[in-house]
Amino acid sequence: MNLSTTGGDHLPADDSFQLHMQKLPVKDSSVLETLYGLGNGHMGIRASNPLQGSQSNQDGQPGMFVNGFFDLSEITYGENYPGFPQNAQAIAELPDPRYLIFEIDGERSDEVAFDVKSVDKNLDMKTGRLLEIFEVISPSNKTIRLTMQSFVSHDQPNLFVVTYSVSATNFDGAVTIIKQHRYTNRQIDNSNDVRADQQTGQLERTFIDNQTTAMLLTTRKSQLSLLIAFQPLDGLDQLKFSIMDELPSYGRTFDLTAGLNVQFGFVYSVGDPHPLMDMSLNRDRYAKEALDRTTSQTFRALYDASCRQLDAFWETSDVEVGGDATLARGIRFNLFNLYQSAGRDGLTSIPAKGLTGAGYGGHYFWDAEMFMLPFFTYTQPEIAKQLLTFRAATLPQAQQRARELNVQNGVLFPWRTINGEESSAYYPAGTAQVHINADIAYAVDTYVRVTADEDFLVKTGFNIILETARFWLSYGHFAQSGPHRGHFVIDDVTGPDEYTTMVNNNYYTNRMAKNNLIMAAKYAKLLKQQHQDLLERLGVDNAEINDFEYAADQMVLPFDRDRRVKMQDDSSMAKPFWPIDKTPNNQFPLLLHFHPMILYHYQVNKQADTVMSDFLFPADQSTDQLKRDFNYYEAITVHDSSLSRAIFGVLAHRLHLAGKAYGYFMDTALMDLTNSQGNTDAGVHAANMGGTWLSLIYGFGGLEQERGTLNFDPKLPDQWTNLTFKLKFKHRFLAVRVTQTSLTLTLLSGTDLSVFFRHQPQRLTLNQPLVISLIETT
Ligand code: BGC
C-alpha cells in the first residue's frame, strides 16, 4: 500500500512503541484480537478476522463495544430474596465495523468461509494505527492479499477509520467487494467461565432511510439506542452506494490483475448511547450529525488530528524503562490500553476488561478507582475527574441501593455495574464487598490531594465522601458485648479476597472505612470555614462530625497477638490452610473447580486483601510488621485474581526483596502480552495494567504523599538502566528520572515546589533539574 496517501509520515521511529505480532509469544487468534483491539474510551473494536462477521464456523470473537451501551436481562434466581438485583447488565456486542465481504466466482465470504492463510499485524502505539495483512483464499483457491490500516480517533471520539488495500496474488479476474452490515449480534459465546461474558441482549436495527447507511441500534430491555453511519473516505478508490440484499451498502466489482491493488476506505461515526425516547425525538438530527461527521473526510486529516491528541497523551503519561526492550514495550502497551479504555464523558468509567472484550459483562468494579485511577489522577487529571463524575452521577442509584438493604443513611455503590445499579447476582462475592464505598471515597481524596481541585471537592467530591461515610455509621455498630465490646464493628462483609466471604471485621474494609470517616470529618471541618452553606444543604452538623471521628477512632482492626500479624477478619486465623502445594496446576483458578463453600472453609486468598491496606497506608506499620504481614499472606495467596501481584510486588520492593519484587512486576507488566492468566481472549486485565503503573511509580519510583507534597525514595532493579516518568501535581508538571545512581527531578511547569527525598526537604525551581545521588555512603 502506498503509505504516503494515507499518512505514512507518522511512521514509527521507536521500536518499543511497536507491537509486532511476530515478536509476541501468543499466537491464539482470539487473544490477538484482544491485544490489537483499538479504543478511545468511547468505543473499542476487536481486531478480528474482518471477513468473519456473525459466522460461527470461525473461531474469532469479532465485535465493537461502546462504553455505557448495554442491555438488561432478567436474573432468574431459584430463591429470589428481597434486595437481590433483578437485572443483569451486559455491554452490547455490536457489529464489527472492520467487516468486509468478498465475492469471487459467485461465492460470497459471508456465506461460505474464506480461509485466512496467514496474518500479520503491527500496532503503532505512538500513533494508534493498526496495520494488518491477511492472505485470504477463496473456495476456488484464489488468493487475495488484504492490507488494512485502522485507527479510532483520539480527536473525535465518535470516529473509526479503516482503509483496505486488496490485490489478487495468483489470478487475474473479477473481485466484488461489499461493505454492509447484515447482522446485528455476533454469535453468543456460551462459556462456562463465570468471569466470561454474560448473555447479551438482542439488538434491533433500523435503517433511517434508503439513501444512507445511517442505522439505529436499539437494545430491547434497557431501551438505549445508538446511531451508526459510515461513508467512503475521500482520495481513494470509491465504492458505490446502492441497496444490496435490501441493505444500504457500498460495493464495486474490480477487475484485478495479479500484482495491482485497489485501495478504499471508510469512516464510521459511532454515536453516543441515548435513551430511546430522546433518540426518537431527535433521530433525524443525530443521523445528520453522524453523516456530516463522515462526509468528505480523508484518512490523512483525521489521522493527523488523532495523532496530535495521542502525542499529548504520551507527552504527559509515558513511562520509559531502559535496559529491557520487551518490558518497555509491555509497559507502553499497558498504559496505552488504560488510555484506550477510560470513559471521559462523565457518564462512564473503565470496564474490568477495558473496551476490548465482553468479559465480566463490561462492568465497572473497584478496579477503576483503586487500580487505574491513580495513573489518570497523576498524569491525565481531566480523565480522572470524569471517572469520578460518573460515580457522582450515580449517587441516586447508590442511595436507593442502601435503602434496599435497610440502611437508612448514606449510599452504597454497586459492586459491579454499568448504569449505577447493582448487577451482581452472587451477593457473597458481590454486594457484600461494601468496601467499594470506601474505595471510591479514597479515590476522590487522592484526586483532590493531587490536583488541588477545590472546585471539584466542593461541587462533587465532598458529597461522595460524606454519603459513603454515612453508610458506615448506619451499616456498622458499636459492639454490645464480646471481645470488641464498645468498639465500632462492621459485620457480614466481604473484603477484596473473594475466597473468604461474609465475615466480621474484614481488616481492609474496616481500615478503609476508618479512612473514609476521617476524611469526611476532615473535609467537613475544612469546608465549614468557607462553605457553611454547603454543609447546611447536606445536613452536616458538629454532632455528625463527632460521630464520624468517634467511630473512626473506635474502629476494630483485628490483630493476632500470638502471631503478631494483622488478621484478615475476626475468624480467619482459626481456619485450616488450603494445601496449595498439593493442588495440581490444572485446578487453578480454584474458583472454577471448587464450590465456593469449600474455599471459604480454608485460609486461602484469591488476591491481596489485608496487605492491600499495608500498601495503601504505609505509615500504619513498622517494617517488621510489614514483613510479618507479607510473609503470612504471601504464603496463603494463590493470585487467582489478576489484581493481586502488583500489590505484592510493591510490598516486596518496600521490604527490599529485590528478586521477588522484580518477579511480581514482570508477571504484572507482561500479563496480557503473554496471556499468563489464560483468559485474555475475553479482554485485557485493565486493573492489572493500572497495577503496572502503581508498581513503577509507587514501587520502584518510590513515590508517596507526605505532608501535603511528594516524597521520593526510588530504587531500580539491577536489570534496568533507568526509569523515567512524569507527574502532574498541584498545578505543576514534573519529570522524574531514576538511574542506578541518581534521581533527577525537573519542574517543567508551574511555580516552585517543595518535595521530599527520603523525607528530607528539597526545593524544585522551574527548569532547574535537581540531581540527587542514590549512592549510599557509609
Ligand atoms: C477480582 C475482583 C475484581 C474483578 C474484576 C475478580 O476476579 O477478585 O477483585 O474486581 O475480578 O476485575
UniProtKB/TrEMBL annotation:
Cytoplasm as UniProt keyword: no
Catalytic residue list: E498 (proton donor)
Domain of life the protein comes from: Bacteria
Keywords: Glycosyltransferase, Transferase
Keyword Flavoprotein (UniProt): no
Domain Glycoside hydrolase family 65 C-terminal intervals: 704-761
Residue ranges of every copy of the Glycoside hydrolase family 65 N-terminal domain listed in the record: 27-229
Signal peptide as annotated in the record: none
Gene Ontology MF term list: carbohydrate binding; glycosyltransferase activity; hydrolase activity, hydrolyzing O-glycosyl compounds
GO biological process terms held by the UniProt record: carbohydrate metabolic process
Domain Glycoside hydrolase family 65 central catalytic: 332-693
Family label: Belongs to the glycosyl hydrolase 65 family.
Matching PANTHER family: GLYCOSYL HYDROLASE-RELATED, PROTEIN-GLUCOSYLGALACTOSYLHYDROXYLYSINE GLUCOSIDASE
Protein name: Kojibiose phosphorylase
Naturally occurring in which organism (per UniProt): Secundilactobacillus kimchicus JCM 15530
